[in-house]
Amino acid sequence: MSEKSSHKLLLVGRGKMGEALQSGWEHSLPSLSITSVDPHSADANFKTLSDIPDGLGPFDCIVLAVKPQMMQDVLKDVLPFVQSGTLVISIAAGKSISFYEESLGRQCSIVRVMPNTPAAIGYGMSVLYANGNVTESEKALASTLMKTVGLAEWISDEGLMDAVTAVSGSGPAYVFYLIEALAKAGEAVGLSAELSMTLARQTVAGSGALVSQNETVPAATLRQNVTSPGGTTEAALKVLMNDANGLTSLMTDAVNAARDRGRELAKQNS
Q1: pLDDT digits over 118-177, tens only?
Q2: Among candidates 51, 56, 74, 73, which has minimal Cα distance to 64?
């Protein structure tokens, strides 16, 4: 995993994302020792942090996988477990590095992560940002942990996290809505609701698999491969690619709206 052959990790929160992460770690990182805490999960090792016996620590890494509105209270309980050399990773949306430093100390090594829901099946996209205390070996550990549930990329400017959230964090919802819209369009031209939804779901799923399996091929090339001059696909794309009100314009507006809302929420949470 990094310089050490094994690490002791404390997972706080076993909701959908926390559960997905632990499943990925157990499958891909058998040497990782995981202790989980969640008052609402029957599969967690402990209900509260205070239940953890002294002998289980210290932990090399603490992963915070709780809802943003719970984070302030959780940090108070986590603080006793944060020691020199402890890496803290948070996957909560809208909470800045400075928010964690105020509770855990400016000297703490902190990584902020924006994952997305496909991580639940190992196809997630995670973007990471580290404060200045995080060492290269700690960055390697954070990358390893997040790559068990998909791809992981680093950014050097925390200010980009709102844009990341708008693209990949919220992005799955855009794709799901595309399926809904395509299915409704199919109904409008005479297909049954059931058949139209099946066609839309499988078309998007199959197209996503093509993109994934052809990483070096631009999406534009894959699109062009389906588009015959003067054919049906070209006719549809002329509508979707209209400069004034086509899909690119709509998507840009949508991403801007999500980014701006993220900034507003960050200010409210600061």
Answers
A1: 998 999 999 999 999 999 999 999 999 999 999 999 999 999 999 999 999 999 999 999
A2: 74
Smallest CA-to-CA distance from 266 within 93, 111, 64, 70 is with: 93
Q: Which amino acid is at 19?
A: E
The closest alpha carbon to 81, from 165, 12, 166, belongs to 12
Residue 231's SS3 state is coil
C-beta separation of 38 from 44 below 8 A: yes
Distances (CA, A) of 178 to 110, 181, 182, 187: 36, 5, 6, 14
Phi, psi (rounded to 5 degrees) for 220: -60, -35
- Please check whether residue 70 is in contact with residue 43, taking contact to mean a CB–CB distance below 8 angstroms: no
CA-to-CA distance for 196 and 212, rounded, in angstroms?
A: 24
What φ, ψ does residue 241 adopt, rounded to 5°?
-100, 15
- At 267 the pLDDT is 79
Are residues 81 and 49 in contact, defined by beta-carbon separation less than 8 angstroms? yes
Please measure the distance between the N-terminal and C-terminal CA atoms of the chain and give it in whole angstroms: 34
- pLDDT at site 1: 46
Walk me through the domains of the chain, giving residue ranges and CATH numbers: 8-161 (3.40.50.720), 169-269 (1.10.3730.10)
Q: How far apart are the C-alpha atoms of 33 and 62, rounded to whole Å? A: 12
Structure tokens at 39: 């008052």
Token pair, residue 12, equals 């706080």
User: How far is Cα 218 from Cα 229, in angstroms, rounded to an integer?
Assistant: 19
Identity (one letter) of the amino acid at 76?
A: K
Q: What is the distance between the alpha carbons of residues 160 and 158, in angstroms, rounded to a whole number? A: 5
DSSP state for residue 165 in the 8-state scheme: I
